[in-house]
Amino acid sequence: MSKDRNVDVVVIGSGPGGEGAAMQLAKAGKRVLLVERYDRIGGGCTHWGTIPSKALRYSINRLTEALNNPLFQECGVNVKPSVAELTRAAKEVISSQETMRRNFYTRNDVEVAFGHARFEDANTISINEEDRITTENVVIAVGSRPYHPEGVDFSHPRIFDSDTILKLDHKPHSITVLGAGVIGCEYASMFRNLSIKINLVNSRSELLDFLDDEISDALSYHMREHGVVIRHNESFEKIEALDDGVIAHMKSGKHFKTDILLWATGRTGNTQDLGLEKIGLVADSRGYLEVDDCFQTACENVFAVGDVVGFPSLASAAYTQGRAAGMRILGTDEAQCKLASEIPSGIYTSPEISCIGKTEKELTEEKVPYEIGVANFKSLARAQILNQRVGMLKLLFNRDTLEILGIHCFGASASEIIHIGQAIMNQKDGANTIKYFTETTFNYPTMAEAYRVAALNGLNRLF
Description:
This protein is an alpha/beta fold. The chain has helices at residues 16-27, 43-47, 50-68, 70-74, 83-107, 182-192, 213-225, 315-330, 335-339, 360-365, 381-386, 414-425, 435-438, 450-460, and strands spanning 5-12, 32-36, 111-114, 117-121, 124-127, 131-140, 144-146, 159-161, 174-178, 197-201, 229-231, 236-242, 245-250, 255-258, 260-263, 267-269, 302-304, 345-347, 353-357, 370-376, 391-398, 404-411. A hairpin with a 5-residue loop joins strand 18 (345-347) and strand 19 (353-357).
């Protein structure tokens, strides 16, 4: 890359947010330079976050299903792979994802530079304090990292965060998971499926309280049913790392000693040393940047997307946000900005959770006349065949118009099932009603059939 040159847009970070913005702008003919601080494309999502953790989860789930299968038990199958062996499959997926993404940039003529990007002013970016790039717009997509408070020794071999836990090279007997957000709940589920004793420490009174109450309750029940010890309303006072374990001391006076500790109490935006002071931007106490509905910062030509803007901190959201920022830069239809606020959540606990739209609590507070339709997975032929009987699909709809207001799914394939309902929710001109599911034919047996069952259940409540 030559020094002192000009492009239309600089995108900082090659995770989903940066990729979404770069692709949107490049396809519209903009000259885009993408800067990545890591030595490979894909960001934390590809290399130490979403992809490796979900690959580990898949390996654990397949192992658990095999060991619980009566046929395999009769054959004497009783394997005990290490965590390192279970994570090995992720390496091939990571390599494939990286290669695919490199090809995206090559095919769309997006130049990629590796190094540390820093603002010199609102229209000038330096890379490694050597190359100076002038640009009309900048998209910040630098992601986030696990939050590290003072007083916790993360260099200790028994203390992990959500990035380093994937490097665990042995199977511990017990784990304290400090923090019961999405990441904490996902890892608690995964490791419990390996028969590791789990203390899940939650600073709140319920798990994932942004979920519909019934889904949150179901998650708590099934985690406890599988042996996870959940400790609500606890705040840590100090962490004591020893040669033979870690003691987590709580402000309540309790203390929990386990083989290792997984710190999962939130994340911090990677906004340090970006030169934000040169453009008048200030990140909050957790390193996050404030943006408007189309991800524009207080600096008019600078946008921020993905984890660096905080909630919902999902790879899917980041990609959509990147596209929305790109469309604002292009000055085209801003419907993408609205779409970026209407995304489904996917939580990969065991069983997994996915939802979109309003919860019962929100509809009650808004005084919306709603009704509920439920399909329990235990009644579905497909779930019985798969031996995945735990779970439910819950539809919330307006009693008067039958408009779908919220969809909440708990159980196997929830993150896949949700998209059928999402597609109908996004229909216009009165087509987004629960009657679609009663007037269409679903393959049988399928998990998708849950929509027909839930819709009939809901409509029957009206008469």
